C-alpha cells in the first residue's frame, strides 16, 4: 500500500513488535515495487506498558532506533531522532543496526518475564520451606545489579506481549539451530503455566479436594490493574481450572465486561489472537459463571475468594463484611499478595498467599496434583 501511494522517498518506521528480520521483508517488498522511489526502513520498538502508557511515552527510559548502517540509513535514523529530541533527552535516544533493534525488543520482554518466572519459582520453594517470598525479593532486589522492580510473585504473568514475544524468540532460536537456547527461554513460559496450575491445585486441595458445586468469588479478571485487557490473563487459566472441577464462579472486575469474560472462558486457548470477525458472534455462555458489578455481591455466600488482579480497591474492601456473608470455613486465595494476611486470619479467614508461610490449614496438603 505504501509503495502504491508514495510519490517521493519515504522513511518507514516499524513500531509494532515483530519477528526479527521483518524490516528486511518490508524493505524487499518496497524496493521491488519502488518505481525509482527510495525507502529507508527503521525499527523503533515500543516499550510502553499498559496502564502507564502516557507516562512511558512522555518520559521513556530509552528510545531505540535501528536502521541500516549506510549513509542513507544513518540520515533516516537522524530524522527520527530529531522528532524524539523534541521531548526526550538525547542521551536516552540510542541507535543500533536493524536486527539489534528488533531483537532488543524481544529480549527486553523475555528478561522481564524471566524475572517474574524466577521469583514465582522461588515462591514455590518459600511455601515449602517457610520463607516469605516478599522478604526474599526485597533482599535480592536491594542489590543494585538486580534491582527491586518486577519481582512481585504472582499467580503468573499475562498480557498480549510476554508469552508471544518469548515464543517468537524460541522460534528464532530453533530456526537458527539453537535448541538449548530455545529450551532455556521456553522454561520461562513453563514456570508461568506451573504457577497457574499450582494456584488452582492449592485452592482445590485446601477446600477438601473438590470445588464441585461450590461458589467461588473471582476478584479481578484483567491481566493487571488499571486495564480492562484480558489477553493471556492468568484468570482465564485459573477460572477454566476451577470450572473443570465444576465450581460455580462469580466474577467481578472493575473494568472487564461480562461479554468479554464469557468470550474468554468459552474460547479455546490462543483464539484471542484471531481477528474479531473470525470469533464466534455470540459464544454460548458458560453456565456456571456469573459476572457481577460489585465485590460484595461476588463474595456473598461464597466458599472461597480468589484475588487474581491487583486492583487497588481489593486492598481496602471491608473483609469483615465479606467474611460475615460467606460460607464457613471461609477461604481467601490471594494470587497477587495484596491482602494483609494477619488481619484476615484474625477475622477468621483461612488465607493462602503466593510464596508466604502457609496457613496451618494448608500444611501437609499437596500443592501439585
Ligand atoms: C510489557 C512490558 O513491560 C513493556 O515494556 C512492553 O512495551 C510491553 O509489554 C509490550 O511489549 O507492548 P505490559 O504487557 O503492558 O508491558 O505489562 P507489564 O506491566 O509488563 O505486566 C505483564 C504481566 O506481568 C502482568 O500480568 C503483571 O501482572 C505481571 N507482573 C508484573 C507480575 O506478575 N509481577 C511483577 O513483579 C510485575
From TrEMBL:
Q: Which residues bind substrate?
A: 47-50, 105, 150-154, 158, 224
According to its UniProt record, what is one Pfam family this protein matches? UDPG_MGDP_dh_C
Q: Which SUPFAM superfamilies does this one have?
A: 6-phosphogluconate dehydrogenase C-terminal domain-like, NAD(P)-binding Rossmann-fold domains, UDP-glucose/GDP-mannose dehydrogenase C-terminal domain
Q: Which reaction(s) does its UniProt entry say it catalyses?
A: UDP-alpha-D-glucose + 2 NAD(+) + H2O = UDP-alpha-D-glucuronate + 2 NADH + 3 H(+)
What keywords is this UniProt entry annotated with? NAD, Oxidoreductase
Q: What's the top EC group for this one? A: oxidoreductase
Recorded metabolic or biological pathway in which this protein acts: Nucleotide-sugar biosynthesis; UDP-alpha-D-glucuronate biosynthesis; UDP-alpha-D-glucuronate from UDP-alpha-D-glucose: step 1/1
Q: Where in this chain does the record put each UDP-glucose/GDP-mannose dehydrogenase C-terminal domain?
A: 217-341
The record's section on Gene3D superfamilies has: Cytochrome c1, transmembrane anchor, C-terminal, NAD(P)-binding Rossmann-like Domain
Molecular function GO labels: NAD binding; UDP-glucose 6-dehydrogenase activity
Please give an example of a GO cellular component term from this record.
Answer: nucleus
Q: Which residues bind NAD(+)?
A: 17, 50, 164, 231
Q: Where is the signal peptide?
A: none
Q: Tell me which residues this entry annotates as catalytic.
A: 161 (nucleophile)
- Any single GO BP term: glycosaminoglycan biosynthetic process
What EC number is given for this enzyme?
Answer: 1.1.1.22
Q: Which family is annotated? A: Belongs to the UDP-glucose/GDP-mannose dehydrogenase family.
User: What's this protein's name?
Assistant: UDP-glucose 6-dehydrogenase
Amino acid at each position: 500500500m505504501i509503495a502504491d501511494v508514495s510519490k517521493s522517498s519515504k522513511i518507514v518506521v516499524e513500531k509494532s513488535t515483530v519477528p526479527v528480520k521483518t524490516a528486511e521483508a518490508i524493505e524487499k517488498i518496497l524496493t521491488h515495487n519502488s518505481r525509482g522511489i527510495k525507502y529507508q526502513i527503521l525499527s523503533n520498538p515500543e516499550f510502553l506498558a499498559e496502564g502507564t502508557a502516557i507516562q512511558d511515552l512522555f518520559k521513556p527510559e530509552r528510545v531505540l532506533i535501528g536502521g541500516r548502517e549506510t549513509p542513507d540509513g544513518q540520515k533516516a535514523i537522524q530524522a527520527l531522532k530529531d522528532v524524539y529530541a523534541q521531548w526526550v533527552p538525547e542521551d536516552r535516544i540510542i541507535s543500533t543496526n536493524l536486527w539489534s533493534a528488533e531483537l532488543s525488543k524481544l529480549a527486553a520482554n523475555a528478561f522481564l518475564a524471566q524475572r517474574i518466572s524466577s521469583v514465582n519459582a522461588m515462591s514455590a520453594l518459600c511455601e515449602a520451606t517457610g520463607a516469605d517470598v516478599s522478604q526474599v525479593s526485597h533482599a535480592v532486589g536491594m542489590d543494585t545489579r538486580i534491582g527491586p522492580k518486577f519481582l512481585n510473585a504472582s499467580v503468573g504473568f499475562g498480557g498480549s506481549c510476554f508469552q508471544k514475544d518469548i515464543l517468537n524468540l524460541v522460534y528464532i532460536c530453533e530456526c537458527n539451530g539453537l535448541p538449548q537456547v530455545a529450551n532455556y527461554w521456553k522454561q520461562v513460559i513453563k514456570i508461568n503455566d506451573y504457577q497457574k496450575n499450582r494456584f488452582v491445585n492449592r485452592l482445590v486441595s485446601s477446600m477438601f479436594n473438590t470445588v464441585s458445586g461450590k461458589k467461588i468469588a473471582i476478584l479481578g479478571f484483567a491481566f493487571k490493574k488499571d486495564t480492562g485487557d484480558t489477553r493471556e490473563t492468568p484468570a482465564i487459566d485459573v477460572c477454566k481450572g476451577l470450572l473443570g472441577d465444576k465450581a460455580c464462579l462469580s466474577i467481578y472486575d472493575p473494568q472487564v465486561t461480562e461479554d468479554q469474560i464469557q468470550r474468554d472462558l468459552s474460547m479455546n486457548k490462543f483464539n484471542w489472537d484471531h481477528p474479531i470477525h473470525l470469533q464466534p458472534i455470540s459464544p454460548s455462555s458458560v453456565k456456571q459463571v456469573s459476572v457481577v458489578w460489585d465485590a460484595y455481591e461476588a463474595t456473598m455466600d461464597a466458599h472461597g475468594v480468589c484475588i487474581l488482579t491487583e486492583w487497588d480497591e481489593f486492598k481496602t474492601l471491608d473483609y469483615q463484611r465479606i467474611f460475615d456473608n460467606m460460607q464457613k470455613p471461609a477461604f481467601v486465595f490471594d494470587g497477587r499478595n495484596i491482602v494483609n494476611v494477619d488481619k484476615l486470619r484474625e477475622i477468621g479467614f483461612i488465607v493462602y498467599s503466593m510464596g508466604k508461610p502457609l496457613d496451618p490449614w494448608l500444611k501437609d496438603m499437596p500443592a501439585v496434583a
